[in-house]
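This section describes the prediction task in plain terms. A model, or a person checking by hand, is given the sequence of a single protein chain and must write out its three-dimensional structure as a string of tokens. No templates, partner chains or ligands are provided. The sample shown here is typical of the held-out split.
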Amino acid sequence: MLLIGLPALIVLLATTFVGEDKPNWANRLMRFAQPLLLLSLVFDAVLIFWLFIEQHGAFSFGRAAIVFGWFVCGWYLINSRHWRFYRQHLINIE
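The expected answer:
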């Protein structure tokens, strides 16, 4: 289950090591950052769905908050102009 967050961890590390002055491996990885984060979100959806199946659909506000947070993250990854501009800036540095 810990491998679900691995794509997000890779993007976090790449964001940390991006070089503004010279290109490195992190700048090249930023081309694939958004698809990696979407892949992590899909893995997360599978895990959330599995957890809900195990609880036989019982409702709670905690679960509702988890699902709401998942949808907010998906919306942000797909629609955020700031994320796209930041990624394009890091790609164009090369």
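For orientation: The mean pLDDT is 78.
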